[in-house]
Structure formats: C-alpha cells, structure tokens
Design goal:
The chain contains 10 helices and 14 strands. The protein is an alpha/beta fold. It folds into 2 domains: about 220 residues, Rossmann fold (3-Layer(aba) Sandwich); about 70 residues, Alpha-Beta Plaits (2-Layer Sandwich), CATH 3.30.70. Strands 6-7-8-3-9-10 form a 6-stranded mixed β-sheet, sandwiched between helices. The structure holds adenosine-5'-triphosphate (ATP) and magnesium ion.
C-alpha cells in the first residue's frame, strides 16, 4: 500500500537561525490514525504546518496522495483538513458562515447538506447562527474542526485537538475521529495525552529536537510503556548489587540509596516475592518501598536522553 503522506528528509531553519526540523522522513499509511508525540518545542506544529503548506521547508519534500505539496500545492492541499493548535477565529462571523467560507476556500461548490452534517456531528447545529465571540473555548475548538472538515478532506491533521478541553468533548472528538476513520479518512494527531494515543492511534511516532526518534505500532509501544518499577529505599547506601541477585533486573540509584527493580506489568507473573526473599537472605534491608509506572513522559525523557 502506498503511503498517503510521504515526508522525505524534511528540514526547517527558521529566520532566527533555529533548526526546528533536522531531516525528518515519515510515511503515513492510508486510513490509519497516527499519533505524533513529542515534548514542547519538538517540532510537531512545524512539521504539520509544512505538510499543510503554511510554512515553507528549508529542504526536503512532502507528497500528499502523490501530489508534491509545493509544486502541486492546490491538489495536495484540497485533500487535507487541518485543525490548528491555536484558536484563531473571526470573532464577528457566525458559525455557519465561517464553516461554509472554509469550504469555499478550497474551490468546492457550496454543499449545505454537508455543512449541516458536520455541524450536527460536532453538536454545533443549535449554535450555527451564533457569532464566534459568543462561544466557549471548547465550542470554538469544535468550530475549528468543522472548518477543517468543511471541504471533505481525505486526510485530517489535528494539532493538539483535546488540549484544555473537558472530558466530554474529548470523548466526542474520539468518536468523531473513529467515524471519520471508518469513512476512510487518514488521521494524524499530535497530543500530550497518553490515554489519547492509547485510545486512538494505530501507530505512534515520537519527535524530539526536530528528529523522529521512533515510529511504532501502538501495541508495541504499549508493551514498552507497560514497564513498572519497584523502588526500595535502603537505610544506608549500598556499594554494589550482590552477585547472588544478578538474576533480577536490579539497578542502584545514582546516590546508591535506592534499589530499583524493573518489571513488565503485562507479564503474567513477576518474581517480586522471590526477589524480596533473596534480598532478605542477602542481608539487604529496606526502609520503604514504592512503585512507579513509566509514563509516556518517562519514555520521552529516556528517548530524548539517547538523542545525540
Ligand atoms: N516562527 C518561528 N520562528 C522561530 N522559531 C520558531 C518559530 N516557530 C517555531 N519555532 C521554534 O521551533 C521549535 C519547534 O516549534 P513547534 O511549534 O513546531 O513545536 P511543537 O512540537 O509543536 O511544540 P508544542 O508541543 O509546544 O506545541 C521551537 O523551539 C519553537 O520555538
Ligand atoms: Mg505545537
């Protein structure tokens, strides 16, 4: 299957001299939901903005449905819907007008039935005659989505669609994304919420310092995320881990005051009980213990640390 979005060796140096993307290559499969994760400033919005033609790349190419986004801009762009990260809306326009106007921008004939369908799907139908300035933040975000869907795109980019929205709206967005995917729309979203990637994504990509450092099936990533640590606080620093405990995945903290046991939560059985018994037999006592579940944040930190 040919990828619907193909990003090849993309680089971006902003006028300030800042290198926001460093040779990014990425293929998005038709019909998948792809979550792009990364810490603040990693380059997610820059990447999306270049794909959507809002920002000019310094080097590299992007094709959307086979069309180069620079040399065949209109053909590429009409296939793409973008829900931007920033809420900028025309305060005095009505919901209906702003969404209809968006469709017109792509040279599509008016289609009130489609606009109505989109507004209903986003629970905006009863607000269609409201001016945007009278809407709440969450409703404005729905309007951005309606605008992005106004011209029936095959590819939808959502840049932090659920940042700062309530649980209900987040769930609505998830179900909307699912139904779009069922209609064959390819969805690329950025998010800081692990539940969102967990819930929605088929594949996950991680970007850090302008480089894609991981692209993986979600299930595989979840397996990695499933790691948990048991941390034992020692009464006094331990010089090294005794040889008889070599069977366990144990590590000492840098101050040597904590013994860290890493295990996989999806594993049917852990050997915690025998490990604790062996510790006792080895004369190692501990004052307290706690467990830590590795979060996506931890994974980022680990990955980022490994990035040259
Ligand atoms: N117009 C610009 N001029 C100079 N630097 C910029 C510009 N836009 C973005 N940057 C820088 O490029 C880097 C990447 O920014 P970008 O907005 O792509 O990050 P992001 O991954 O979307 O972050 P966030 O999670 O905060 O949305 C940041 O260091 C940012 O400061
Ligand atoms: Mg961003």
């Amino acid at each position: 299957m040919s990828p619907v979005i193909l990003v090849s060796n993309l680089s971006k140096v902003y006028a300030s001299g800042f290198e926001a993307l460093k040779g990014v290559s990425l293929a998005i499969n038709r019909g998948e939901i792809f979550a792009l994760l990364g810490p603040n400033g990693a380059g997610k919005t820059t990447l999306i903005s270049i794909i959507c033609g809002l920002v000019k790349a310094t080097g590299g190419t992007v094709t959307a449905d086979g069309y180069d986004t620079v040399t065949h801009y209109r053909r590429a762009r009409e296939r793409i819907g973008l829900v931007p990260q920033e809420l900028t809306t025309e305060a005095f326009e009505t919901v209906w007008d702003t969404v209809s106007f968006s469709r017109g921008l792509f040279g599509k004939r008016p289609n009130p039935a489609h606009i109505e369908k989109v507004l209903r799907a986003l629970s905006l139908w009863d607000k269609k005659d409201n001016r945007l300035m009278t809407l709440s933040g969450g409703m404005k975000r729905r309007v951005l989505i309606a605008k992005a869907l106004s011209h029936e795109p095959q590819i939808l980019f959502l840049d932090e669609p659920t940042a700062g929205v309530d649980v209900e709206l987040r769930k609505d967005m998830w179900s909307l994304m699912r139904s779009l995917r069922n209609e064959g729309v390819t969805i690329i979203l950025t998010t800081h919420y692990i539940e969102e990637a967990e819930e929605m994504a088929d594949r996950v990509g991680v970007i850090s310092h302008g480089q894609i450092i991981l692209v993986e099936e979600k299930r595989e990533l979840m397996r990695k995320l499933g790691r948990k640590q048991l941390i034992l606080q020692l009464p006094e620093p331990l010089a090294h881990i005794p040889d008889q405990l070599n069977n366990y995945k144990l590590a000492l903290s840098s101050d040597k005051k904590e013994l860290i046991y890493t295990y996989d939560t999806q594993q049917e059985q852990t050997d915690i009980t025998t490990m604790l018994a062996d510790l006792r037999n080895g004369g190692i006592r501990f004052r307290d213990l706690r467990t830590v579940q590795s979060s996506l944040e931890d994974i980022f930190v680990d990955l980022v640390r490994e990035t040259p």
